[in-house]
Amino acid sequence: MPRPVRARARRAFTLLEVLVVLVVIALLAALVAPQILGRVSQARETSAAAQMELLGVALDSYRLDVGRYPTTEQGLRALRERPTRAPVPPGWRGPYLRKEVPPDPWGRPYEYRAPGRKNPDGYDLVTLGRDGASGGEGEDADLVVP
After folding, report:
1. Which structural domain range is residue 135 located in?
2. CA-based angle 4:10:14, to the nearest 5?
3. In what order do the strands lie in the sheet with 111-113?
4. Span 25-70, pLDDT tens digits
C-alpha cells in the first residue's frame, strides 16, 4: 500500500516573520536606549560626587593632623605620601587613603586648589565633567566640592 504524502515540515522563518521581529526589536531599543543612556550619565555624576566626598573626608583628616590642607602644589598626592615640598607637614600621620587617588569617572584627574576660589578658607575639589572644559550643562557640567 502506498504511503500517504505528508506535508513537508516547516524548517525556516519567512522573510516577513524576520522583518516583524526586527521592527519589534528596533521599537524596543528606541524606547529603552535613551533611558539607559540617561542612567549612565547619572551614574557617572553620582560616582564623581561620592569619590569627591571621600576625598573630602581624607582632606579633613589631613587637616586635623597637620593643621591645614595640603597646598595646591602638594595636591591630592599628599593624602598617600608624606609631602616633601615646603611646607613639609610635621604632623602627617598618613596615608589618608587606602588606594591611589582615582581619576574622575571620565578618566581625568580631579583638580585640587588650596586655598580655593569658591572656598578661600579651605579648598576646591573639581571635576570638569564629560567635556573636560570649564562650564557646561548636564554631564558636561563641572562638579565642585565643597
Report:
1. 16-145
2. 145
3. 111-113, 124-127, 143-145
4. 888 877 777 776 666 777 888 888 899 999 999 999 999 999 999 9
What CATH number should be reported for the domain holding residue 93? 3.30.700.10
- Specify the pLDDT at position 46: 85
Confirm if 80 and 100 have CB atoms less than 8 A apart: yes
- For residue 34, give the C-alpha cell: 535613551
Q: For the chain, how many structural domains are there in total? A: 1
Which secondary-structure segment (H or E) carries 65?
A: helix 15-66
- pLDDT band at residue 1 under the 50/70/90 scheme: low
pLDDT for 42:
78
The contacts of residue 115 (CB under 8 Å, 6+ apart) are 121, 122, 123
CA 1 to each of CA 4, 104, 122: distance values in angstroms, whole numbers, following the listed order: 9, 81, 100
